[in-house]
Amino acid sequence: MKFSIITPCKVDDLPKLDELKANLESQTFHQFEWIIACNGFDNHFEETQFPIQVVSYQPNTIGAARNAAIKAAVGDYLVFIDADDFLLPDAMKKLNYMTPRNEDTLIDLNHYKTYETQQAYLKDLAINEHTPDFLPDWGGRKKRKPRSYALNFTSDNLKHLNLNKKQQHWLKNKYKVYSGETRYASLRKQLVLAGKVINRHFVNAHHLQFNELNDLYSDVQFMMAVLNSTKRVVLIQQYQYIMVYHNDPINDPSNAQLVRGDRWQKMVSAWIDGYQNLTNAEFRLAFAEYTIRRMNRYLYNAILSNADSIDNVDATLNIVSKYLNLIDKRAFKSVNVLSRRILSAIADHQFGVAQKLMASLVFGRNAHRIVKKRGRGITKALYQLVFTHLAVKPNVIFYESFLGRNYSDNPKYIYEYIQKHYPGKYQHIWSASDPQVKDALKDQPDTRVVKRFGFKYMYYLATSKYQVFNLRQPRWFVKRRGTKLLSTWHGTPLKRLVFDIDNVVNATPMYKRNFYEQSRQWDYLIAPNQFSADVFSHAFMYPQDKMIKSGYPRNDILSAPDRDQKAIEIKKRLGIPLDKKVILYAPTWRDDERASGNEYKFQLKLNVAKLRENFGDDYVMILRTHYFITDRIDTSTFGDFVFNESNYQDVSELYLASDILITDYSSVFFDYSILKRPILYFVYDYDNYAKILHGFYLSMQKDLPGPLLKTNDEIVDAIKNIDQIEQKYKERYAKFDERFNNWENGHAAEKVVNVLLDNSDK
């Protein structure tokens, strides 16, 4: 047997073994065994192209699991693959070509980090037809791409190059050798166990074992011992090992995501245990320099900020002091002078002096970062260091709608209710990133509009007693004692949210953790219906007893007795002829049309010319795209038939002004259904979009109060026969209305404000 693949597994990780098994079966080379180290796992796998054995271990740690697997292994090489990771299809085949004759050579399959699931990742790889040198974006910065080190030569290309065998081998397999002067040039990556391939006879000859007592860093001491005795590292330059980060660090944290107050102590302890056994002087110094740089970058701020990785500062500094007195002091030269003074003070047990010096160093770094970033960096620093220490103003209410882009949505109607029923009682502060917000509020009493992330924004955000957001508050927001934060949210959910999402590739890597921490600051969350309350309770992990079950304030105008008069006023404001009916087209964004981050392009697939041809005498159309869509669609060629109101501040007013809604996968139809007007679903890409329909809370086929239409001809026919459509979907519409609108009685703003202000000063 050539290879022994070793996978430690906790009981919680057992479902992931099925995916890893399928991944190993998909390999184009199968001369390996798979050893699963797991207590309490009854091997249910059927026979496959490679043997599988399960081993148990004691104590119940990852280190003990790996040691037990090594004892059971019979392959010439040990390949370490974690349960939630996977390999590219040709990884084992490439590895077979790469195995050297020398036992003291470490092979690295080159790991690539992602937050995507294996299924989503490989699907993206296939759909986008990446060449082997390129992989999909990971879950971090959207513009970050893995580097390409080599050209994709084929066998036919090589025939005409007259290369020797060594050159051909390199071009086929593309690897990089770290030896001699470059031996420890990439030490951070070399110390990671995942994807490493080590000669089993080498491991046994050097009596290498994992630390069975350090439950966080059992592999550190092992990899230190490996690097101490190996002479070279062969790195396959095309990423073959895909390391999947857990995308739910709250409910399913990986070992690295566990909140542990002894994390720094465990890590430094592993360094000490490993360092004491190092015999290679060059590696001793390289490792010491690596750890010194790591402490310089992360330790000081963790200590000063009371990070969750440090419960006991003195205990942490004591073990760091022990390590610093063990290592070669030449390593101190790898950091700046002030950091050297800090390390020397820690080594001498002058912890008070060290912490004062840390404060100076961290302050200098923050100041440098502020100067470098300018703008928001300075205002954010003032918010954190100055404004949050000022007195809270009990009569100030802070509002933000859609990141300051609009004067709209629930915050608008909460504000207007308070203005009407508590005149002169409160000072109102509106966040604005768009001039339209200031224009909309320029004549309002007791109201101030502040530039988002400007000095005044930071001041009022820090000192206001009440904050009202329809999206999440800034991640660095400080919840102060005596203040109230209301999350209005912005719609009944159709697509799955946060903790109900398996794959968070279209969000930041820490999306779920950030959302969880931010939502813990909410004093209240508005629920527009019981369906939403139930979804929010598991999707946000937010308790229902803290929800305001009221309906949405923004929908009050849809049930208002004067809504018909308001509709006329809105039409006049927009210049829409009063003798014409209005079709509102409100499509959402598509996942596969992303421009960058949370910004998307949109291709207009609705045949507007055909609609104008058929209905231009009786109708006009309002186009309203999602705020994620960055490009303004040119509708000038359609003359006075189309009113492009994508930048219109308040979509609720557009609902009032319209007679028919055409939408797709947008959740706008939930609110629109309050009007009891017809809804058509133009789902031209339904077959392609169906791959994510499992990510919806509703069945589009069974639950929606209108027809699913895939072609422009079907749209035209539906509008021509809109009365028959209404009749056909009358019963389903009634059920939908009962399920989602029974709280919408026109008094939502009143209910919300009474809770927010406690009705104590009415």
Automatic annotation (TrEMBL):
**Coarse class of the protein's main subcellular location:** membrane
Please list the residue ranges annotated as the Glycosyltransferase 2-like domain.
51-122
Q: Which residues cross the membrane?
A: none
Instruction: Specify one Pfam family.
Output: Glycos_transf_2
Q: Which residues form the signal peptide?
A: none
Keyword Disulfide bond part of the UniProt annotation = no
Q: How does it sit in the membrane?
A: Peripheral membrane protein
Keyword line: Cell membrane, Membrane, Teichoic acid biosynthesis, Transferase
Q: Which Gene3D superfamilies does the UniProt record give?
A: 3.40.50.11820, 3.40.50.12580, Spore Coat Polysaccharide Biosynthesis Protein SpsA, Chain A
Carries keyword Transferase?
yes
* Localisation: Cell membrane
Q: Which domain of life is it from?
A: Bacteria
* Protein family: Belongs to the CDP-glycerol glycerophosphotransferase family.
Q: Would you tell me the protein name for this molecule?
A: Bifunctional glycosyltransferase family 2 protein/CDP-glycerol:glycerophosphate glycerophosphotransferase
